[in-house]
Structure prediction request, 167 residues.
Amino acid sequence: MYPLETDVLVALRRIVQAIDQHSNRLGKEFGLTTPQLLVLQAVATMPEQPIRAISEEVTLSQATVTAIVDRLERRGLVERHRSGADRRKVFLTITETGETVLASAPKPLQEHFIRRFDNLHDWEKHQVVFVLQRVAEMMGAKHLDAAPLLVAGDVTRGHQTQETPTD
Prediction:
């Protein structure tokens, strides 16, 4: 039997590997990052919405979502449309190509997690949150700003990069 700290480190490594594998599959098979997939899903489910509404839905900054939309637009997956009533307003719609990609792409990893997490008892949910917050603190990551996305690296870039904690 391993010491408990070894069990913790193995569990953390498995989590990181699961995130990496999902991100790699999404990138290789569909040419998308997880944040791009989330934005594409939001545009599909919230037609004719401005970037501000999409950024609130996916819990990413408006600047990050704008950069993601730029990439999706270049690939022909979404389109920007100016409002007829107010030309300053720009709305997003998914294209046919975007719908095709979205229909075949896997669900984001956090959707699977959330579905399973919702099945836990309330006390178990609180325990998981408490323990993971403590682990983040122990790894010197408490101060890091993070969106509720299961991806590795910086979501503002076109690809994920592996980052290591400092402390």
Notes: Residues 155-167 have pLDDT under 50 and may be disordered.
